[in-house]
Amino acid sequence: MQNNDTNSKPISAYGVETSAVHFPCLITDHRPPPIHLAFRGLTVSVGQRQILQDVDGWVRPGQVLAVMGPSGCGKTTLLNCLSGRLRLDGGQIFLNRDLLCKRWKRKICYVLQQDIFFPDLTLRQTLEYTARLRLPDSMSHSQKMQYVDHIIDVLELQNCQDTIIGDYIKRGLSGGEKKRANIACELLTNPSLMLLDEPTSGLDSYAAHSLMSTLKKYANSEGKTIVVTLHQPSSQIFHLCDKLLLLSGGQTAFFGDTSRVIDFFSSIGLNIMPHYNPADFILEQIKGSSDMRDKIIAAAKEERKSKDYPTELQLSDCIYIQEKLEGAHGPYPHLEQDTLNSVEPDVRKLWLDTHSHASSSVSSDTQDPDCYFSWPTSFWTQFKVLSQRNFQEARPRMLSKLNWVQTIGLGIMAGLLWFQLDRREEALHDIQGWMFFSTTYWMLFAHFGALSSFPPEREVINKERQSGAYRLSAYYLAKMIGELPLTMTLPAVYHLISYPMLGFHSPEVFFTLLCFLLLNTVVAQSVGFFIGAACMDMQVSITISALYTLATQLFGGYFATNVPPWLTWMRYLSMVHYAYQNMQIIEFSKGEKILCSEQSKFEICKDSKTEIPIAAILDAQDSSATSCCATFVARSDRLPLEVATNAVTLTTTAIVIIFARAGPHRVEARDPRRPQIDIRLFLRHRCIPNWKKAMFAGPLRKCRRIWPGILFITSLFIVTAWRRSYNFGGKEIHPKHIYRGNQEEYVDNKGMRVIVGHYIGNGVRNVPNATYDMLNANNFNPEPQAGRNGMPVITEPRDLLQMQQLFQINRFNVMASDRIPLNRSLPDVRRKKCKYLYRDISNYPKSSIIIVFHNEAWSTLLRTVWSVINRSPKELLEEIILVDDASEREFLRKPLKDYIKRLPVRTELIRSENRIGLVLARLRGAEAARGEVITFLDAHCECTEGWLEALLARIAQDRTVAVCPVIDIINDDTFAYVKSFELHWGAFNWNLQFRWFTLDSKQLLKRKVITDPFSTPTMAGGLFAIDRKYFFEIGSYDNKTKIWGGENLELSFRIWQCGGKIEIAPCSHVGHLFRKSSPYTFPGGISKTLYSNLARVALVWMDEWGDFYFRFNEQARRVKSEQDVSQRRELRKRLQCKSFEWYLDNVWPQHFFPKNDRFFGKIRNIDADQCIIKPIGKTTSNQPMGIARLENCLNETITMAVELFVMTKEGFIMTDDSICMDAPEKEVNGYSKVRIMACSGSSRQKWKYHEETKQIVHTTNTKCLDVIDSEQYDGLVITECTKSKTQQWSLEPVSWTV
Hints:
- The protein is α+β, with helices and mostly antiparallel strands.
- The chain is 38% helix and 15% strand.
- The strands form eleven sheets. Strands 29, 30, 31, 32, 33, 34, 35, 36 and 41 form a nine-stranded antiparallel β-sheet that branches. Strands 6-7-8-3-9-10 form a six-stranded mixed β-sheet, with helices on both faces.
- A hairpin with a 5-residue loop joins strand 33 and strand 34 (1213-1215).
- It is elongated and about 135 Å long.
């Protein structure tokens, strides 16, 4: 067969005009290079089926190659091979002189048979977004829009450019218009080779002929190479094609010029009737009997051997002679010169070199590592355009009128149903019902909305991703961020309507609940996207979603409260669980408290409680392991909030990444026209054969699509393990311990460990079945990853019995400690600003670190030492001094002595053969120290980054300051490191028990810089740094203090009263292992030891307030006379120390102690002849709070502190443990109840006593303190002031000095 010259004009023979069509890039100096396509021996098989077998063909620029054949003959498969989307089993594809690779793919466009678009976008919007994504950034926006206008004009789409694309539901473009729109999107990139899959399918004869005529004009005038598959074309369309490739059963039945096909069939005895459509004729012959097909295929094979067969397909290397393609008139000799000159100058200038940057419609994937691919637009451009498109496409669907009506109606209905609920136990279930309904409804709404929206969108994204239009990461971010405002709008409107109707308490609670509701909605949407992307079948997606959403409701914590232990892990997969529990924590801790009912089901209400604590509410739902995220929100603890939120975000991100990876990407599918996910095929063709290349030739590029799955499984495992990290012995334990009646130590509601003196413990009981070997065994056996970054260590169930026995030795889980390496990593819990301070340490003094221990576990002691070494600048570390207070453990003898010799820092071991106690042991260490500063640590601490620099920096500024770090918590069960609340200071109560209190608003306002150290009235005593010389100048420790206890108060009073200061450095964090009981013995008895120490403190430093202490503390009064304090009083006199009254007025003006300028005594109601009493029960904050009540007054001889109050000049009525009378400032439903709560310094706690009327008036609302006669409520209230005797009170002073 002789190849015809392209100068021939087959178009004109059939009445098609050959005049030029004005397309861009018609300037010959800058036009894209022409593509001469040739393919030989193409073979493709899927499984056992062979789709293509030894197929040849070629076509030159300016020509149209038609691929014809019956259905299933492999036409679309051939186009997929030519576009590079399908892997070849054999054969070669050449474009000019090169094998097909990514460099050439950028010059090819592939128009799919399906017209896939977003139905709600107009034609013009579709083209504009395509141009902005696929045309290079070097072009301005106006230039891209000018090009869109030109394409619309060329393809005659002006009349429908503002019509939506439409689908089977919405009427939009016609079939022919959609075909032209599909082609228009590809013409934007100005390709050199166009592949079109059955572009005439579904069109009438006129529309089909018009479309093919336009394509022929385009190929002829622009020198484009076009390959098109045709199913059953008309005779006019058939003769528009220059070449024909006829396929039968995947084999070549004919290839050559279209004009030669009739002669070919005649040569084998198959003659066409006159005036018969050649296309119909040849297809009828191909569809004939099997013998006929075999005869035609055999003739085609013989044709290859003839000398007339194209030489380009006969050469062994398929090398083309470029000169053969070029004539006297340049690279396109068949183009008329007047056509080139007719192009408008603006169009010539506009499209210079766009072909070298625009993306093509073939996949960006390739198997040739030598071919480099660059995106036509930047990540930011792709993200911006996709965000705008996603927002515009999703807005009509997500914010439809029906959705607005549904949301507003449901919000009003929910508000009316739960309208203005009382904050009482009877309404608790209703409040929880609103929370659960809200989270569940919006979870289902977002989940199934995303599920139904993704399948139609997936095909569009598949098409665009295969064309290399944008990065996957850009689409993922744009999808989430573009739709985020739409996703959050309706839940926010619902919350804005329903929650205020429920009962609005504070903006903080309102917005925090809204945040959790929105987070739950976003996560539900992400899960919907994941399931929609992973499941190709919509019915399967709905089934899986139904199962998951029902399960997430069942394990949400509302329907089922007693979940079997073996199913508790399911709640961590429940979206509703997190949102519902978090909303409860916020509502019941930050909002108005829930009051107990008369017949309460809560045990805590039966113990004279009036308010139900959040812990009891969650316990009732078997939710003691509440969400850390909201727990720490309630505690205003920033770092744990970030950790918990990042854990949830990690899971969400992994889910959405899988959606992005699993859905819109190319996979070698069985049906190339409809890409599907076939994991087995993917692994066989992509991962397994190339694993070595993938592992060693780049960033796992061959198996990169399995990483999202690995990320999801790993993140899910991490989050589940993290959530279960506090599960111990079958009972979930959280670092925020819930108060139990037999505990002396616990964490308050601000997250700080409350120490009821260092000295109150349960005492030492005999360790059951403990042997000498057990007590002296060192079982330290570290696991490299145990406790890493402060994470908890879980004891295996099989080790619980042994753990419980060993627990008694040290009063902490020594088995967990022995599994943790000595140099384990810890989180950097400082504020970000702290990390940039204290960089210049050249002027800081050196410090000696003094650690006293007695029978300490090997692992905790040396972990303390190593944390000092690893996280302290070596130039600031003079030495470490270990003081052994007569330890009895064998491993603390010679093994410890030998071990410290190998430490990289000078470490000295001082031993005491007799038990001398903490105070004297610290004195021995201080006397031996050589550093300018001495820093005291307990033997079970862990220091964090920057801990020492912050302490020494302050001492370098003022040597009279004793500086304490922020004391974080090391859990005694799991050894988890938990950051504590920074803004606490230390003080004490009337019994001289150490307490942590929150800084009030005045103190917070004084702090101009949040990282600056702040004053504290007293120190906890276990951890602090002080100038060594100054320490001894002010008298060091009282050397007659016994063992342990009271030394922190004595040192604190002395420093302040004698001219020094005590401060807490918020940039210094040290973790401390807090135990619920003491493992140590107290020679002489615990009571006598502790109260003797406290009596010495009161006698020396507290002046007349010492008498106040002894009056209400019988045990201290008994040992008072035994104390010889003459030396300490002489020291106070020599140092010219100030009075204790000065200390109260200047250091701790917020104190609740009596003074001469304050009322101190009983507050008696004249009508009832009863006194206000202090609440007896304690809450989780270790402060006795509750409703203000009256009880019978005690006689003068048995006056007790429980009925004594202080009234300050400012009007605060307070009592021991810093609790104040509190009343609401605004009108409330029902009684305006008076409570006794933690002092806050706010106006709602201010009162005024009128001597004339004997009324106690609330200064804010001018109402009077009153007693009501009601069976429903027996507490005090405030009412409008009258002359009623129930509002008359007698303030009866009580002497507080001897």
